[in-house]
Design goal:
2 domains, two-stranded parallel sheet, Rossmann fold, mainly alpha, binds adenosine-5'-diphosphate, three-stranded parallel beta sheet, 5 strands, 15 helices, Tryptophan--tRNA ligase, Tyrosyl-Transfer RNA Synthetase, Trp-tRNA-ligase_bac-type, binds tryptophan
Length: 339
């Protein structure tokens, strides 16, 4: 069966090693086997959080350059930015007319924001406090899942590679599509989430999941010396070098494994068991990481020096994406009785 794969990348921070291993690498691999792949920068999703024009523009370029530098081939993958596809916003409105408000009330990001507000009120609230519980929450955050459903459904997507935290959003997209299909008969294609393996969760400098929210990340394209310095900040215990160490519980080993050959991984496993100094382990991680990142780092720097080239690539991608988008939107408009 022909499969369309699609995913969105929210430009809200400088891409880090966790993003590469958990999202970029598997998505690029998936694109190789799909009959059609569409990957896009979700800049209008980022707008509900980033209200600084220069920052948003900078992050869009960084994210786009990162994917291109790491091997996304724009001849094979339709690569664009969300804001270049006007059809999305029309479909988004259509979908919102089929979306139960209660479904949005249950979306994680919104619920988490309400919970924070409730917490700051001491944990109790009545209906009269509704305004307070929604404090600081804009409609962009609230209807985020509807726009995301439009992102997916506009391209008749079958498979959406995402992180675990996004599964609910794909379920919501299915719910909304099903609701439309129930009313009008088969119209929209139901998407499925594809989550990469749990083992691909990269630990950050403090041992927790690497995440920009924890401020424990290693950005992908640091100059070698900075990369080395940061790797040496990985939290380790105070066991002496001669003491045998468990590779499987070591974040450093975990990182090593993602970038080393199987032979190299086995060799380091042996050194852990025999006793290895943390300094040596960090040096080993630096070597394989730096080896893997040298070429992409060069390509990234080249692209960032020529933002017009990135813009031109994204514009070409948008033109191709809109050819598909126009067809689905036209079909949907007819289906609902709008011509
Ligand atoms: P962050 O946690 O830094 O905010 P995002 O939520 O923007 O990162 O994640 C973007 C993508 O990168 C998601 O698919 C997510 O699953 C993946 N990802 C983020 N951090 C990690 C990590 N530490 N290990 C593996 N994958 C990750
Ligand atoms: N919400 C996703 C995230 O935060 C980004 C995203 C926007 C997306 N639209 C999408 C992902 C459509 C997959 C499909 O990571």
């Amino acid at each position: 069966m022909a499969t369309t794969v699609l995913t969105g990348i929210k430009p809200t921070g400088t891409p880090h090693l966790g993003n590469y291993v958990g999202a970029i690498k598997p998505a690029l691999a998936l694109a190789e086997t799909a009959s059609k792949a569409l990957y896009f920068v979700a800049d209008y999703h980022a707008l509900n959080a980033i209200h600084d024009a220069q920052k948003l523009r900078g992050l869009v370029l960084e994210v786009a350059a990162t994917w291109l530098a790491l091997g996304l081939d724009p001849a094979k993958v339709v690569f664009y930015k969300q804001s270049d596809i006007p059809e999305l916003f029309e479909l988004s409105w259509i979908l919102s007319c089929f979306t139960a408000k209660g479904l949005m009330n249950r979306a994680h990001a919104y619920k988490a924001a309400v919970a924070r507000n409730l917490g700051s009120r001491g944990g109790t609230a009545s209906v009269d406090d509704m305004d307070d519980l929604d404090a600081g929450i804009n409609m962009g955050l609230y209807s985020y899942p509807v726009l995301m459903a439009a992102d997916i459904l506009l391209f008749k997507t079958n498979v959406v590679p995402v992180g675990k935290d996004q599964i609910q959003h794909i379920e919501i997209a299915r719910d909304i599509a099903q609701r439309v299909n129930t009313v009008y008969g088969p119209t929209l294609v139901l998407p499925e989430a594809r989550v990469s393996a749990e083992t691909a969760v990269i630990p950050g400098l403090d041992g927790r999941k690497m995440s920009k929210s924890y401020d424990n990340t290693i950005p992908l394209f640091l100059p070698p010396e900075k990369l080395r310095k940061l790797l040496f900040k990985y939290k380790t215990d105070s066991s002496p070098p001669s003491e045998p160490k468990d590779p499987d519980t070591s974040p450093l080993f975990h990182l090593y494994r993602e970038f080393a050959t199987p032979e190299e991984t086995e060799a380091l496993r042996g050194r852990y068991r025999a006793g290895i100094g943390w300094g040596e382990a960090k040096e080993a991680v630096f070597d394989v990481l730096n080896r893997a990142l040298t070429e992409p780092r060069r390509r990234y720097a080249e692209l960032m020096a020529e933002p017009e080239r990135i813009d031109a690539l994204l514009a070409e991608g948008a033109a191709r994406a809109r050819e598909i988008a126009r067809v689905t939107l036209e079909e949907t408009r007819r289906t609902i009785g709008v011509r």
